[in-house]
Design a protein that fits this description.
The complex is a heterodimer of chains A (about 90) and B (about 190).
Chain A lengths: L1 H14 L6 E6 L2 E8 L8 E8 L9 H13 L2 E4 L5
Antiparallel strand pairs in A: 1-2, 2-3
Chain B lengths: L2 H11 L8 E2 L10 E12 L4 E11 L17 E9 H8 L5 H9 L6 E4 L10 E4 L4 E4 L10 E5 L1 H16 L14
Antiparallel strand pairs in B: 1-8, 2-3, 2-8, 3-4, 4-6, 4-7, 5-6
Chain lengths: ~90, ~190
Amino acid sequence: MQELINLATNLTLDGMVGSRPAFYAEAPGNYWVARPWPASSLLAKDFEFLHINYPTGMHVLTMAERAALERALWRSVEILDEGFED
Amino acid sequence: MDVAEAHALVLEKIAYQPGAFYGAPDGLALGAGIFFSNVRQPQFDSNSRRFRTVRGMSYVVTHECDVAQENDRLFNDSVLVCPVIRFEEFFDEVDGQTNLGAFLGNMATRNIPRLVYVPTFGEALPYGGVLYLNRITNTHVSAFGEEGVAPIAAVSATGLREVDSALGNLLMREKSDRRWGVWPRA
């Protein structure tokens, strides 16, 4: 556990942007989020750690699902121009 | 299954209270976590194989510090946005797919890394919406000053954690292919 906290803390100090959390992958599907606490990075004196279990059994989209997703996207936007030929 | 039933199924599966997902957008600077209406952006049309200019509801991905116009800095005029697909339109298109319930459940539990369900928000998203993370694109900061563009919602800390952790999973999950070296940096 201490090793994990050290790793996450180093990652946060190294890669922190504002108050956005940093992520450390413990294992596939098993992540820790380290974020400054209090939330303002200027005031942060500590870190809070959130353990997130990402799903490990990923759903691989079928071709039909991907096509449906594309159609849904185009239904959700207004087309302003048709693009340009090469 | 109709759209209301599909919506209920998704709400049953999400791992947070949907009412805790949003906060007020008032007074927030342009930056991550805000939904805007009518954002101009390019999207690739695989049928015509052209980039089209479109506008639609979008979620801002770029951190506010990187687009603060009061800072006279280079590289602060491009904004990453993610298009939002309204759930009812999403449902219309996926309705009839085999194992639809499993598909919706997997989206709600974030078993589909490129999709994030966002809950109901008033008339703008009566059944919620879907962030299609692999369609994140960039637009110019001036697009947010165009007529008809307005902030319509902002995520709370709960919502930001949900979306940020999905982005982290999408972009930073361990590669399937083996790589040499050590990560994170020692």
